[in-house]
Amino acid sequence: MWWLLLGIVPVMLYLFRRRSKRVRVSTLVFFKTLAQEHQESAWLRRIKKWVSFLLTIALLVLSVFVLSRLIVKQDDADQYRTVILLLDRSASMAVQDESGESRMDAAKRLLTERLKKVPEEVGVALIAYDVRPEVLQARTLKRRELLSRLDTVRSRPIPGRTDTALEAARMLAGLEPPAAIWHVSDQLLPRPESLVGGETTDLPDTPVALPDGIALRELNLALPEISNAGITALQLRPVPLEHSRYDAYVEIALNTDAPDALAVRLNVSVGGIPSQLREVELAPGEKKGLTFRLDGASDQILRVWLESDNDLFPLDDQVLLPLPEVRPIVAAWIRPDAGEDPYTRLALSSIQESGSFELLKGGPSAWPLREKVDAVIFDGWLPPEWPADIPAVVINPPASSGPLLVRKLDAAVPYGSVGVGNEDHPVLFRISSSRVAVTQTAVFETQGGLEPLWTAGREPVLAAGEINGQRIVVMAFSPGLSERLPLTASFPLLMGNSLFWCVGREDGPESNRLFSTGELAPVSGESILWTGPAGNEGRKQRAPLHGDVVEMDRIGMWETDTGVRGASHLLSVSESDIRALGPDGGGDPDYFLADSGIAGNLKAWLLGALSVILLLESWLFHRHAVY
Questions:
Q1: What is the pTM of this model?
Q2: pLDDT > 70: percent of the chain
């Protein structure tokens, strides 16, 4: 509608045209003199007519060109009906070059310039992806709206996943074929040769095959040289039977394309007090796991950070996590009043003193229990009706009950050593099985999910497993009658490991949980408070909750108004392994190159030239009678 305003120009020329005026005079001498003064030669009149004709033809030609929407330097984009912009916004796109321009800013700049060559009749869509793809702009012919959406894209501290993103782009491109997919990232898609010709492969990291009518173009924005060391994994757990002590496992790695080996420093602090310091030298592509023994109280902040030279990617250099609150395991010890084993009582008492357990004692008359417990220990007695909803540790079983098929031996059989079935089982953690001597009192069948851990002769004397969702540990021996077992540290460890493994409880709502960015965390409440890693205490920001899950879309610690706590960090091998630009470059850099000068749609240039010609014609008409 705005172009209709150009119609004002010919209307104004008509209204202000030169008009003849009739005046009564007494003689014709004046007119003769005036005609002689303004008489034009024939060649000058002819030139004026040709100039007027050329200006009129130029106006008509330019008007036709404006309506036809001419594009200069057209490429194959005019062969498609749809162009899909598949833009990577994962964490690695925040890497900056020497000028301070991030990979994301470079991608937006190049795409904006490249879209100038695309005709306006071609629809363009925008998909940004990290671990999940998001359609930011469906197919549209409104280029300004698309560029506005493109300008709002920001890199997020989340790992990238290309298979789902390419599948979303393929589905969107299939709505208006033929189409082209422009993939812009800091690394190429895996196995790009399988994308042409519709050939598929059974590899898990291979993108979906593209059907006929859909082409793929890639732009690799990786830096020519980059070295990045980062924290790729962290695991924290309380030390069994030791109060306020934790074991931490940290994995660090150096990217594969690093030019040289790199010396890094790994620092650990608890509650702001330095605790550990390790200096490690990493080769390109090398991963190293380090373990730490830490002392601290619950709610103290564990900070692990990595220091190295020339680090261009700080998002994977630090992990903050509150030390979890360890709730003691509540176990019930059921044994006949006359058959209490003093060695078992001593082992359970020593475990209880560590603060990891709370023990309830009772005889068969106390069964079934009124209190809720995490596990039950049956010592020399089994209930007639087996409890299927409580983890159980069975010592010296007298008879069969529930899923256990047991036969009591008439006479106990001592063994000076035992065979080990699976020494890596958690029940045998830190236990010296080679020094164990037991006295077998019963024979049982290892049916269902029971796994033999110790064998005496050909019969199992210790087994652990899961039957119908219930974890059970069976000890077919008497600790008091065994020769060396109750006098060593292995027996308290065996009881503690058995209870820890049987309970195996997941983190409760009050526990701390460590998530990788991009994961969905179950929460409850109306708001969540994020604490970022900046500064000593970190930035705090509160956000509303709109459901029972929240996306871990930032780095830091969080806590809901109902007390659910956790932390979110990158912890991604793929994002920390930042790729460098190879010698061949990869992708189609020439295809996305925007030359300087006039390029793209000429509508604005043609309208400007049309306005200049109209003004020139008006000036020549009024000043020099060119018509």
A1: 0.67
A2: 85
